[in-house]
Amino acid sequence: MEFGFELALCAHLEHATDWVLARQLGGAVAAPGSRVVDVVGLVPGPAFDDRARITDRTIPPKAVESTAGVGEAVPVAEAVDAHPDRARGIADAAVDCGFFAEERRGGTRHVRKATRYPDDWFDELVAIENKPDLGRPGDLRRQLRVDTSLALFDRVVLATESHVTGAHLNRIPETVGVWRFHPDTGDREVVREATSLDPDAPGVELLAEHPGRTDVAVVDPAEKAAKRRRIAERAYGKGWRTYAFPGCGNCEATEDGRPRCAHFDRVVDPASDCGESCSGWTADDAAATAADGDALRAERTPWVRDPPGVVRRQTGLDRFG
Ligand code: SF4
Questions:
Q1: At residue 221, does pLDDT exceed 90?
Q2: Contact between residue 101 and residue 314 where contact means Cβ atoms under 8 Å apart
Q3: pLDDT at 314 over 50
Q4: In this structure, are strands 177-182 and 155-160 parallel, antiparallel, or unpaired?
Q5: Of 63, 150, 154, 275, which residue is most buried, by most CB within 10 angstroms?
Q6: CA–CA gap between residue 49 and residue 302 (Å, rounded)
Q7: Which domains, from first to last, does the chain contain?
Q8: Atom of ligand 1 nearest to the CA of 264
Q9: Which residue has the CA at smallest separation from atom 8 of ligand 1?
């Protein structure tokens, strides 16, 4: 249920906003794997086009954070703060996506940034927690407390299909916005607007709760800024159509690229619902290429597929510099 709800919400937001959307991204700093946000909405900022021009992939965070400049190439070991093997891999990925330019000097590989990394390419990051059925809230309270107290995102929203009562609202932190969303019709009602949080201030990350005691870590603004950039990069590279279509003839793509099963008459999660053990499985290799998610993404969002890149232009400038 939650998978279909999540995809329907992404498809709706893709249509209704100019956000770049991605699913299932880490949203904690001190204990990185401890919080995974269902949907992240990246609101484009003034330098969005500068970022889009570089690459359609995620630029490796360590490359973005590298002290290497644009003007002069430095040895990889100096440019990337990591174990030498990892540093090489990170440099490879950064060269491959066009953010680093490389050259050999005296047998040593040197890299420099092919362009300055744009600071203000996104305005806001919105975290959306999906809980289609508020009658089964699971870990919802803890998740929302983590998000609001850490304030890594500019806004936090709870999306549900349930009727939202006053009692529900009282149990949800008051800064959290609430949407009621109907996945079948794509109707979204804003029950409560989210209040903007302050990502530039220190945050408190809840690590563990014990009876009478809560373990926390204080996260300073610089750590939050770095994590926000990583989330933005990941969101830009990843998107929300991260599933592969199954090789089953009953699976078809909706016009927005969701995997819909004609046999069960609903959107399915190919990773968990589909396979030869399914009662409706009908082998059909062609079905695995039912949708071109990247083409839909390029057509419907500000994300730019396969941009020209910045390396060659910079090299040209160097020649005359
Ligand atoms: S494998 Fe089963 S659930 Fe998946 S598309 Fe085929 S019939 Fe539907």
A1: yes
A2: yes
A3: no
A4: parallel
A5: 150
A6: 9
A7: 2-46+120-238 (3.40.1350), 60-116 (1.10.10.10)
A8: 8
A9: 261
Which value, to the nearest 10 degrees, does the dihedral of the CA atoms of residues 207, 210, 213, 215 take?
-10
Cα(1) to centroid of ligand 1, in Å? 15
Q: In this predicted model, what pLDDT tens digit does every residue of 68-103 receive, in sequence order?
A: 999 889 999 999 999 999 999 999 999 999 999 999
CA distance 166 to 222: 37
For residue 319, pLDDT beyond 60: no
Give, using CA atoms, the residue closest to atom 7 of ligand 1.
280
CB 147 within 8 A of CB 164: no
77: its two tokens: 């070991």
Do the Cβ atoms of 128 and 9 come closer than 8 Å? yes
- Angle, alpha carbons 245-246-248 (nearest 5°): 130
Q: What percent of the chain has pLDDT over 70?
A: 97
The enclosing H or E element of 93 equals helix 84-96
165 C-beta closer than 6 A to ligand 1: no
Q: What are phi and psi of 72, to 5 degrees?
A: -130, 130
* Cα 136 from chain centre: 25
pLDDT digits (tens, 9 = 90+) for 247-264: 999 999 999 999 999 999
